[in-house]
Specification:
The complex is a heterodimer of chains A (292) and B (367).
Chain A (H helix, E strand, L loop, with lengths): L2 E7 L10 H13 L4 E6 L6 H4 L7 E6 L6 H10 L19 E5 L6 E5 L7 H14 L8 E7 L6 H16 L5 E6 L17 E6 L6 H11 L13 E3 L2 E5 L9 H11 L5 H16 L3
Parallel strand pairs in A: 1-2, 1-3, 3-5, 6-7, 6-8, 8-10
Antiparallel strand pairs in A: 4-5, 9-10
Chain B lengths: L2 H11 L3 E3 L2 E6 L2 E6 L4 E5 L3 H7 L1 H13 L4 H10 L7 H10 L1 E5 L2 E7 L5 E7 H8 L7 E3 L5 H4 L21 E6 L1 H11 L3 H9 L8 H6 L18 H10 L8 E2 L13 H4 L5 E2 L4 H13 L13 H15 L17 H11 L14
Parallel strand pairs in B: 8-9, 10-11
Antiparallel strand pairs in B: 1-2, 2-3, 3-4, 5-6, 6-7, 7-9
Helix pairs in contact in B: 1-2, 1-3, 4-9
Chain lengths: 292, 367
């Protein structure tokens, strides 16, 4: 049976770079040959969620949202736009960070769709955050003497938005690797503006749990943290703020190892992709090691 | 043609073949082969290879469409359409293919040619670049091989501006895919114009599914839910304006097939004015985003303002709006002060008619 991976990402009407990580991760997975087809689909770009499935020939589709948290997009928009008519959030039986998958029939095409939880809440996302810290410091053993801030958008409208951030902060804290780990937010407390107040360590790695670099990760957050007065003039890495060194990584979603999380989500839903996961883990680690 | 073509054709002929002007079937111990040009042969099984060689073009054509071209319906039908397979008999089509046969799809020019053994090779360029090549111009085009590179080419126009709408008539020039196989050609077309092949195919098959304005707006939620309030079932003049603003040929190459609802056609009519090859099945995300903004703006009541303008100044305002709406501002020449949308003319108007706060004729908006 032919199997396809369909990645559902947000995209943008304004920013050409918003879709770039989606393409990159799709290409990494395509190169493994684990799926007969790999297709990128977008809320704001084309192919749209509405038409994504009709561009796929396989009868068996693993649909993975390239989104950070469970919530409005994963529970309402994606199932509606992909016409997963039997969808009910109960099918994921999730507490907000534990969605696995649900198998449904697409009203548009009749394909069998294994609808997976978003990449952002998958356990292996914690590894990507850690690897992001390694990438930005250039130190594969980074941890001792360092604090790690996992930064989310946060919103009062959906509690799951913060849950995903806190979930990974807890998991990484449990690894006992960094001296301190904190979950911080743009739009709710504790706020990333005051990042240095939450850490005693001289060195702080700041990793935003965002899928793509854009307005928030390249303008808002660097200015809010005081890395720069004007994002257009750029900032140093690390940058001195209130006597701390801030290692700011930009969106974690651009990390090559994200391709692994997409595969892991599909694997949890039953896709036969174990060999591909091994390969992607090796390759993306090599890319980091070679400073690529 | 090589042995594999003949073997595959012989295999198929044992169940009967009738394709693109050739028929072949088993009759007792013999094969009967008949072509559309009137030639017919009956031979013993072991001589089939010799006969097949006589029908070389028909056999390699059959082989290409059954063993080489992607066997997915929409892709297959599109590739057939590219070479006019349903309307041009094989001998004539092969003559054209030897020369290179060019078809356009949106702003894409696709040239299909024959290679050895009846295989096809596809060249893909911007139609403007193709036209220059056809005129004998020597163009320096960047050459690509991977069809997925089309995703990057589709991102920006010739001025480097981001293209959020893939079917906007602003595809950049200066590139070519010089030798794509059939599956890769469709993949590249998909990257330039996603889902157009599939929707075109559904339309041909009578299975095209349109979601009209009303039903599309009705399913919106979140920040787009507000558009529903703009859809009160009291006429559709506002949706006419949306279609005129966004769906005109000058803005999008898709042929709008959605109307206000199943019973209510918009004015302008989509399929009457619109020549696009591939259909549009519902208001896209750009239209919905714009409609959200208009829903808010259209909630305002009109007011009466009094502005002092000379007749020429009034006409100039109209010219400026036209120039912006038609994307013509970049073409207005620096010193062409005869054009109302000229920058110096516009700056003069602003200097004369705006107060320090930017109010036209000094009239505050809140007045």
């Amino acid at each position: 049976m032919r199997q396809a991976l369909v990645i559902a990402a947000h995209g943008s009407h304004l920013n050409a770079e918003s879709s770039a990580p989606t393409f990159t991760h799709a290409d990494t997975i395509r190169a493994t040959g684990a799926f007969d087809e790999v297709r990128e689909t977008f809320w704001k770009e084309e192919p749209s969620f509405r038409e994504g499935l009709r561009t796929v020939d396989a009868e068996e589709v693993y649909l993975v949202p390239l989104f950070v948290s469970e919530g409005y997009f994963t529970e309402q928009v994606i199932p509606r736009e992909f016409r997963l008519e039997e969808w009910d959030p109960e099918l994921w039986d999730s507490d907000g960070t534990s969605a696995t998958h649900a198998t449904l029939t697409a009203g548009d095409t009749g394909q069998t769709v294994h609808y997976c939880g978003p990449v952002g809440t998958h356990d292996s996302m914690s590894d990507v955050i850690v690897q992001r810290a390694e990438s930005v410091t250039g130190d594969p053993d980074v941890g001792e003497g360092f604090g790690l801030a996992v930064v989310g958008h946060g919103t009062e409208r959906n509690e799951n938005s913060a849950k995903a951030i806190e979930y990974h902060a807890d998991r990484i804290r449990g690894m006992d690797r960094f001296d301190e780990v904190e979950a911080l937010f743009m739009d709710e407390d504790p706020e990333v503006d005051d990042v240095t107040e939450f850490f005693e360590s001289d060195d702080i790695v700041v990793v935003p749990l965002f899928i793509a670099d854009g307005y928030h990760t390249q303008e808002d957050i660097p200015e809010d943290m005081g890395l720069t007065d004007d994002y257009r003039t750029g900032w140093e890495t690390p940058a001195e703020v209130d006597g701390h060194r801030i290692w700011y990584s930009g969106a974690v979603g651009t990390e090559p190892l994200m391709a692994d999380v997409l595969l892991e989500q599909a694997a949890d839903a039953g896709a036969d992709v174990r060999a591909a996961i091994e390969r992607v883990r090796e390759e993306t680690r090599e890319r980091v090691a070679s400073g690529d | 043609m090589d042995e594999s073509h003949v073997e595959a054709f012989a295999d198929a002929a044992s169940d009967g073949v009738a394709f693109d002007g050739i028929e072949a079937r088993v009759e007792g111990d013999s094969y009967a082969v008949e072509a559309a040009d009137g030639s017919a042969t009956v031979v013993a099984t072991e001589e089939f290879a010799d006969v097949a060689a006589e029908y070389d073009e028909y056999v390699t054509n059959w082989y290409f469409w059954h063993a080489t071209a992607p066997q997915a319906q929409a892709r297959w039908a599109f590739l057939r359409w590219v070479e006019g397979a349903d309307s041009t008999p094989v001998p004539e089509r092969y003559d054209r293919l030897r020369e290179g046969l060019t078809t356009t799809w949106g702003q894409l020019a696709i040239t299909v040619s024959l290679t050895g053994g009846g295989d096809r090779v596809y060249e893909l360029r911007h139609e403007d670049d193709q036209a220059e090549i056809d005129r004998g111009e020597a163009l320096a085009l960047d050459t690509y091989e991977d069809p997925l590179d089309a995703r990057e080419l589709a991102k920006h126009d010739d001025d480097g501006q981001y293209r959020p709408l893939k079917t906007a008539p602003t595809l950049q020039t200066g590139w070519e895919f010089a030798a794509l196989g059939p599956a890769d050609l469709v993949e590249a077309v998909h990257a330039f114009y996603p889902a157009t092949v599939q929707n075109w195919y559904r339309e041909r098959e009578g299975e095209f599914d349109v979601n009209h304005w009303h039903e599309t707006v009705e399913r919106q939620t979140g920040i787009y839910g507000v558009v529903q309030t703009w859809d009160r079932g009291e006429g559709h003049e506002h949706v006419d304006w949306v279609a005129e603003a966004c769906c005109d040929d000058s803005q999008c190459l898709k042929r709008r097939e959605w109307e206000y609802d199943e019973e209510t056609a918009l004015d302008p009519g989509g399929n009457q004015t619109d020549e696009g090859e591939f259909p549009c099945r519902e208001p896209c995300s750009l239209v919905i985003s714009a409609a959200r903004k208009w829903t808010k703006l259209e909630g305002e009541e009109s007011r009466t303002y009094e502005f002092e303008l000379t007749p020429s100044e009034k006409e100039q305002v109209e010219e400026i709006i036209d120039a912006v709406a038609d994307g013509r501002t970049a073409d207005v020449r620096e010193a062409d002060i005869y054009d109302g949308a000229n920058r110096y003319r516009t700056r003069f108007l602003r200097a004369k008619r705006f107060d320090d706060e930017g109010n036209l004729s000094g009239i505050e908006t809140d007045d």
